[in-house]
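Protocol step 4 of 5: obtain the predicted structure for the target chain.
Materials: sequence only (see below). No template structures provided, no constraints applied. The aim of this step is simply to have a reference model before the mutagenesis design in step 5. Sequence pasted as it appears in the construct record:
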Amino acid sequence: MSIRFTTKALRGMVACAVAAGLALGVAGCGGDGDDSDKPKSSASASQGDGSQPSPQEGQSGDPLAELKGPDGLLLQITTAQRDSGGFVTVNGSLKNEGDKTANVPAQLSGNETEIIRNGRSLGGATLVDAKGKKRYYVLRDTDGRPLTTTNFPALKAGESLSVFMQFPAPPAGTTEVAFQLPMFPSATIGISG
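Step 4 output (structure tokens):
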């Protein structure tokens, strides 16, 4: 074996060890120290770009809330489903009720640099648990991309688009939260599941 090969191999092993250590360190961060209500299993993110809801995230008949935003945009929230992995997925549709083509405002992405870097999204959305006095932000994957619909096209008049957002789940006893999105009014929605 040459010294160059040995040095490259050692450098690769050190890089792997550092990456594994960082991953374990990040996984251990977060939470409030109370392990009693941690989920027993975890949900994995889909391998796609995170911009489309999965097929099982259907739309229900009556929306939980309708929020009117700028330029004739209407956000209808149809479901807010808690899953066993400790997440709440909010599904709905974004419709252009105006008479001209509308662009989805960049402000809906929020103001966090990491989320803005990944294009337009609904990354500025939050759920507020007034009873528990906590605010829940849209989750991100390991690359910093928000787990929400991203990269919106311009919406023609009358056109609608299915959207989703995924949040950490509030405690099991919390069944109502306030949904907030920049440039839209706040609305109280019920969490099922």
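Step 4 remarks: The first helix runs from residue 3 to 28. DSSP finds two helices and eight strands in the chain.
Proceed to step 5.
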